[in-house]
Automatic annotation (TrEMBL):
<feature type="domain" description="HipA N-terminal subdomain 1">
    <location>
        <begin position="58"/>
        <end position="125"/>
    </location>
</feature>
<dbReference type="GO" id="GO:0004674">
    <property type="term" value="F:protein serine/threonine kinase activity"/>
</dbReference>
<dbReference type="Pfam" id="PF07804">
    <property type="entry name" value="HipA_C"/>
</dbReference>
<feature type="domain" description="HipA-like C-terminal">
    <location>
        <begin position="173"/>
        <end position="383"/>
    </location>
</feature>
<keyword id="KW-0808">Transferase</keyword>
<dbReference type="Pfam" id="PF13657">
    <property type="entry name" value="Couple_hipA"/>
</dbReference>
<keyword id="KW-0418">Kinase</keyword>
<dbReference type="GO" id="GO:0005829">
    <property type="term" value="C:cytosol"/>
</dbReference>
<dbReference type="InterPro" id="IPR017508">
    <property type="entry name" value="HipA_N1"/>
</dbReference>
<dbReference type="InterPro" id="IPR012893">
    <property type="entry name" value="HipA-like_C"/>
</dbReference>
<protein>
    <submittedName>
        <fullName>Uncharacterized protein related to capsule biosynthesis enzymes</fullName>
    </submittedName>
</protein>
<dbReference type="InterPro" id="IPR016869">
    <property type="entry name" value="UCP028135_HipA-like"/>
</dbReference>
<comment type="similarity">
    <text>Belongs to the HipA Ser/Thr kinase family.</text>
</comment>
<dbReference type="InterPro" id="IPR052028">
    <property type="entry name" value="HipA_Ser/Thr_kinase"/>
</dbReference>
Length: 439
């Protein structure tokens, strides 16, 4: 089976590459070959290629797949496709609707084709988009007011449920929490994203829904507060989230309406994909992800410092859920790549399930203290290749005061005091460790 990958470049979709699957029934565990379209290569990358300057920016389907005329085969699916493949709640619900076993690898390709027409970022599957357009023909859309979303009204539930199986993003995006992609149209109402054309879009949102009981509801509400806290202490937040009745509205940072009134798409690639891993539940080292930042960021010094601040903040604020799909790189239309704005920052320490950090500092392995890093050692480990380790350490020391205030800021912004106290029990220790980063 062969699919066509399209990239959104210069205000429109281009046929960029083909992916040939060797054993479709084996899912992402089987081999595949990526081949760039000759005309696309000639138009978008031939000049740089001739100058031996690899094109890995928003024009490429992945950092690991620079524009080239050479076919690239891998023993598993190319890693970036796993960023598009539904997981968690989305996979279970969509597989059930399609009559597929959720845990079977044979379900991977049908699920990819059902979800790949309206994706996060600027890469989509052409055939999936065409199939979706056919499914949506004649569909009468029902709009939602903002209060419908925040209050999780019967109308909101009906609209989401009605479109869940026909519109990409309406049955949930990647992750264990149910999510729905909504777009504000010029008529002032919100609709499932694929039902709103680019020329009538005003704003793009992801709505995250409560999974189950009271603890999940508390985590969701506090996650919205945490986004406000992160912004106030100086982390890179695109825009704070808003909590509702079992819902949380997240402004999308991969799409926006530009100054010309046109919908722009920002490329996104998870760290797991960027390091070339075709798997889920992957365990890795922070140092590997930092190497991606150093290799591709337009401002690696600033982004590496931001990365370190985020890890310290996760430790201090009780968020151990730091796998490689919870951090990404954004690829902008000017050719620059940067560490994506912060997302999935929540007090997961409050969850009933025990969640361990899946990304750890390799440089702390001999000390067995990833949960209490020596930040001076960390700065040394990630320095070099143009990164000033001393400046990183000084930046962490300067950040300590802001992080120390974060629990109080969370309560001030409306978080339940008992929840904050439980989640941030290690905050003081993390802050003191940051203050020792400069020796």
């Amino acid at each position: 089976m062969i699919i066509t990958l399209q990239t959104f470049v210069s205000d429109r979709w281009f046929d960029a590459a083909e992916v040939s699957f060797e054993q479709p029934d084996a899912g992402f565990l089987a081999g595949a070959t990526v081949s760039y379209d000759v005309d696309y290569f000639a138009e978008k990358g031939a000049v740089e290629f001739a100058d031996e300057r690899p094109v890995t920016d928003f024009r490429a389907v992945s950092f690991k797949y620079p524009l080239s005329l050479a076919d690239k085969r891998t023993p598993r699916w190319p890693p970036f496709l796993l960023d598009l493949l539904p997981q968690g709640h989305a996979r279970i619900r969509l597989a059930k609707a399609l009559g597929l076993p959720p845990d079977s690898r044979a379900s991977d390709l049908p699920l990819l084709m059902r979800s790949g027409g309206s994706t996060i970022g600027n890469v989509r599957i052409k055939e999936a988009a065409e199939q979706e357009a056919k499914r949506l023909q004649g569909v009468i859309r029902t709009g939602l007011a903002l209060d419908d979303i925040l209050d999780r009204t019967d109308l909101f539930v009906e609209v989401v449920d009605k479109h869940a199986m026909i519109a990409s993003g309406s049955s949930g995006l990647q992750g264990e929490w149910p999510k729905v992609a909504l777009t504000l149209a010029k008529d002032g109402l919100y609709y499932p994203d694929p039902l709103v054309a680019d020329d009538e879009a005003v704003e793009h949102l992801i709505v995250k829904l409560k999974r189950g009981g009271d603890i999940d509801g508390l985590i969701l509400k506090t996650e919205a507060v945490y986004s406000q806290v992160a912004a106030r202490i100086g982390l890179h937040v695109y825009a704070p989230s808003t909590a509702g009745n079992g819902t949380m509205i997240i402004p999308r940072f991969d799409r926006y309406v530009d100054e010309r009134g046109r919908t722009a798409r920002v490329g996104q690639e998870s760290m797991t994909s960027a390091v070339g891993v075709s798997d889920f539940g992957h365990i890795d080292a922070h140092e590997r992800y930092v190497e991606i930042v150093k290799a591709y960021s337009a401002d690696p010094q600033a982004d590496v410092l931001e990365y370190l601040k985020r890890d310290a903040t996760n430790l201090a604020m009780g968020n151990p859920d730091n796998h490689g799909r919870n951090t990404a790189m954004s690829k902008y239309s000017d050719g620059a790549a940067r560490l994506s704005p912060l997302y999935d920052f929540a007090p997961m320490k409050l969850a009933d399930d025990v969640i361990a950090r899946s990304t750890k500092w390799r440089c702390m392995q001999d000390k067995g203290s990833d949960y209490a890093p020596d930040w001076s050692r960390v700065c040394d480990a990630v320095s070099g290749d143009g990164i000033d380790g001393t400046a990183l350490a000084e930046g962490l020391v300067a950040f300590a005061d802001a992080l120390e205030a974060a629990p109080a800021v969370a309560i001030e912004e409306g978080a339940l005091a008992e929840a904050v106290e439980q989640a941030t029990v290690r905050c003081s220790d993390v802050v003191e460790a940051l203050r020792r980063a400069v020796r």
